[in-house]
Amino acid sequence: MENKETINLFVISDSAGETATKLAQATMAQFPAVNFCLYRRTFIRSREALIKTLADAKEANGLILHTLISESLVELTNVFCEQSGLYNIDVLTPTVDEVTRRTGILPSREPGALHHLNENYFRRIKAMEFAVKYDDGKDPRGFLEADIILLGVSRTSKTPLSLFLANKNLKVANLPIVPQAHIPKQIWEVDPKKIVGLTNDPDILNTIRKERMISYGLNPESAYANIDKIREELTFANELYQKIGCVIINVASLSIEETASMILNALKLEDHSYYISDNEDTPHPF
């Protein structure tokens, strides 16, 4: 049933607002028939800025999702919303309070602590540089250093996946698979448990490639998009994956996020991007 009422979601954060935004997006995805308007109010660190934002939310009868860490700003938000009858979710405070209860340690209450330019941040930058350097099999030596190696025929999302996983502090190299093409010897030298073979459904790949050719102003009926050639490529790739003994994932109906999650699960890897300790003596949780 279609609902023409617009739901106004206000994300309020003292930093970049990514955490609350993800929650808002996950909520909106559950209601494709509902009209949403998402307002992001980020780097809110003063009472004046917060009051202005809360007033805007009140005027729009908005739902508020906030990740404020300052106790005074959290209290101001709670009081304002209670008095105004506004729905709000405090994303951080309950968990932060529970950690304090269990450990007896007080939180730093530092806005944007997740985004410190610390050792973990620079590891992520290095991982992204690695993904760019070893994209499309530019240098086979990268396969020996990579945490993950992605294999796949053209248009199976190798490059986007490499960059997405690099943002999780993982070194990713990828190699395009073409029938009868030379497979670098390094592929056979690495642990197959680090390798993921990406595949797709022929008809979906056919559509993707045709659209790609059209976007370039080229003939969509070229050999690149020919359905028989695509089937040949996929057969060659799948036979190669079987020889290697690697994980095989069909990306036909998967988003980049879903595929990345399946890769992490299959290879028993963790998302390292949230490890924020700079203490070299602290054991790495992964």
TrEMBL record:
The lineage of its organism: Bacteria, Bacillati, Bacillota, Bacilli, Lactobacillales. SUPFAM superfamilies: P-loop containing nucleoside triphosphate hydrolases. It catalyses: N(tele)-phospho-L-histidyl/L-threonyl-[pyruvate, phosphate dikinase] + ADP = N(tele)-phospho-L-histidyl/O-phospho-L-threonyl-[pyruvate, phosphate dikinase] + AMP + H(+); N(tele)-phospho-L-histidyl/O-phospho-L-threonyl-[pyruvate, phosphate dikinase] + phosphate + H(+) = N(tele)-phospho-L-histidyl/L-threonyl-[pyruvate, phosphate dikinase] + diphosphate. Bifunctional serine/threonine kinase and phosphorylase involved in the regulation of the pyruvate, phosphate dikinase (PPDK) by catalyzing its phosphorylation/dephosphorylation. It comes from Enterococcus camelliae. It comes from the Bacteria. Coiled coil: none annotated. Keywords: Kinase, Nucleotide-binding, Pyruvate, Serine/threonine-protein kinase, Transferase. Its EC number is 2.7.11.32, 2.7.4.27. One of its GO terms (molecular function) is transferase activity. It holds the Pfam family Kinase-PPPase. The keyword Transferase applies. ADP binds at residues 152-159. This is Putative pyruvate, phosphate dikinase regulatory protein. HAMAP family: PDRP. Belongs to the pyruvate, phosphate/water dikinase regulatory protein family. PDRP subfamily.
